[in-house]
Design brief:
127 residues, mainly beta, nine-stranded antiparallel β-sheet, two-stranded antiparallel sheet, 2 helices, 60% strand, globular, transport, Fatty acid-binding protein, liver, Fatty_acid-bd, lipid-binding, fatty acid binding
Amino acid sequence: MAFSGKYQLESHENFEPFMKAVGLPDDEIEKGKDIKSISEIHQDGKDFKVTVTAGTKVVLYSFTVGEECELETFTGEKAKTVVHMDGNKLMVCVKGIESVTELNGDTIINILTFDGIVYKRISRRIS
């Protein structure tokens, strides 16, 4: 399945406890809790380019599945890691945050886990 497309956050669960646990300041949590972020994904085989727009903040990610890359955490820290792919799932661990992103038709479900706290995001394809 190809991840390419534009997706808008439809719902999320456990945002505030998760963001507190990863160290995001309270004012940033307050600003971000109601933002419906847009993720634009371009996939070419194992190469991915992802642009996430959340309000005025834009974050760009580029990675090749199975190769070392640098990704940014929610707090802006950068860390080297390797993204893995298994069928329609992308898996990565960055600074103790485990992320599994699954494509299911026009829906992307992203489950993030840190220190036993689970944050679930559901986004729908808009183009």
